[in-house]
TrEMBL record:
Provenance organism: Propioniciclava sinopodophylli
Cited PANTHER family: BRANCHED-CHAIN-AMINO-ACID AMINOTRANSFERASE, SUBGROUP IIII AMINOTRANSFERASE
Signal peptide positions (record): none
Listed PROSITE patterns: AA_TRANSFER_CLASS_4 (PS00770)
PTM annotation (N6-(pyridoxal phosphate)lysine): residues: K201
Catalyzed reactions: L-isoleucine + 2-oxoglutarate = (S)-3-methyl-2-oxopentanoate + L-glutamate; L-leucine + 2-oxoglutarate = 4-methyl-2-oxopentanoate + L-glutamate; L-valine + 2-oxoglutarate = 3-methyl-2-oxobutanoate + L-glutamate
GO molecular function annotation: L-isoleucine-2-oxoglutarate transaminase activity; L-leucine-2-oxoglutarate transaminase activity; L-valine-2-oxoglutarate transaminase activity
Keyword Ribonucleoprotein appears in the UniProt entry: no
Protein name: Branched-chain-amino-acid aminotransferase
Length: 361
């Protein structure tokens, strides 16, 4: 699909000195680059009006469908600067493919994968100076998203949709080094159910997770792990991350994708890197009781969660209303090994034997 982008440079772009000040302490999702990408879809016309333009507020009619029915999806990905100064995306085609699976579930139009990737490339290229230097774990976080922008209050699939891409320079998730986190287990609240939107990356799933997330905070936990909504037995995922266990016999175990779990790109990368490091990847149904019993008897020696933002977070312990369970491997040796393996590919410190990197600049 050939779409020409109208490039509109931002006349109010920050100076190099201002960008340098931001990159010195970017935080996460606090500052945004000078530009954004916008493409419109209308029924009968398809995708059109592809534009790279100054970052700024959107104008939406108060009756825009997204504001009333939540018809929207998004992705999260990063651009990485290597030691030689080049800038690379990490598996962008997987983000593009998942974006369309989410779109299909939410009755939004299919966005050709090559157009998704090109839109991301256009933004990263024009705002490449916002991609931090390779030192540490700094990167440029990229947020492509699609919203039902049609002004119409009827309940149906929107006939006008807007696709946008914005970007934010971010620092390391762990500012004081990698530390284990505690996870709250809830069987009271659910983020998704069979036939629902669990495997779509839509905002409603994250909104639904917040009540349990804040319950976890009250118990000193950083994240919450959800159990299936019906049988109250199957482990699913965390509020915004997939979960893994490392067994004493070198299995790398994670809940199988069941339609209620987001098929994370970091998740898939970990399964492949872990296998390369000698672990046996296993995707299967896991009951909460099996997880807790396995931690108690040493079957599972380490646990971690993963996502685009943190890559991998070691899990120091699980808590619930029934008690507390802590894996024996509090040095997180295999967890850190896998984490380093993924990061080394992303930042160009190791050979990209999987062909995952896409050079942008």
């Amino acid at each position: 699909m050939s779409v020409s982008f109208d490039i509109q440079p931002n006349p109010g772009a920050r100076s190099d000195a201002e960008v340098a000040e931001i990159l010195a302490s970017p935080g996460f999702g606090v500052y945004f680059t000078d530009h954004m990408v916008s493409i419109t879809w209308t029924k009968g016309q398809g995708w059109h009006s592809a534009t790279v333009k100054p970052y700024g507020p959107l104008t939406l009619d108060p009756s825009a469908a997204v504001l009333h029915y939540g018809q929207e999806i998004f992705e999260g990905m990063k651009a990485y600067r290597h030691a030689d100064g080049s800038v690379h995306l990490f598996r962008p085609n997987m983000n593009a493919a998942r974006f369309n699976r989410s779109a299909a579930r939410m009755m939004l139009p299919n966005l050709p994968e090559e157009l998704f990737v090109e839109a991301v490339r256009q933004l990263v290229q024009i705002d490449a100076r916002y991609v931090p230097e390779a030192a540490g774990e700094h990167s440029l976080y990229i947020r492509p998203f699609m919203i039902a922008s049609e002004a119409f209050l009827g309940v149906r699939a929107a006939e006008e949709v807007t696709f946008l891409v914005i970007a934010s320079p971010v620092g390391p998730y762990f500012t004081e080094g990698v530390k284990g986190v505690d996870i709250w287990i809830t069987d009271e609240w659910a983020r998704a159910g069979e036939g629902g939107t669990g495997n779509a990356k839509c905002g409603g799933n994250y909104a639904a997770s917040l009540i349990a997330q804040y319950e976890g905070y009250e118990h000193g936990c950083t994240q919450v792990m959800f159990i299936e909504a019906t049988g109250k037995d199957r482990v699913e995922e965390l509020g915004g991350m997939n979960v893994f266990l490392v067994s004493a016999d070198n299995e790398l175990v994670t809940p199988a994708l069941s339609g209620t779990i987001l098929d994370g790109i970091t998740r898939d990368s970990i399964l492949k890197v872990g296998e390369q490091q000698g672990l046996t990847p296993v995707e299967r149904r896991l009951s909460a009781q099996e997880v807790l019993d396995g931690i108690a008897d040493g079957t599972f020696t380490e646990a971690f969660c993963c996502g685009t933002a943190a890559v991998i977070s070691p899990i120091a312990g699980f808590k619930s209303k029934k008690g507390e369970w802590r894996p024996q491997g509090q040095a997180f040796e295999r967890t850190i090994q896998i984490r380093d393996g993924v990061l080394d590919i992303q930042y160009g410190r190791a050979e990209d034997s999987f062909g995952w990197l896409d050079k942008v600049a």
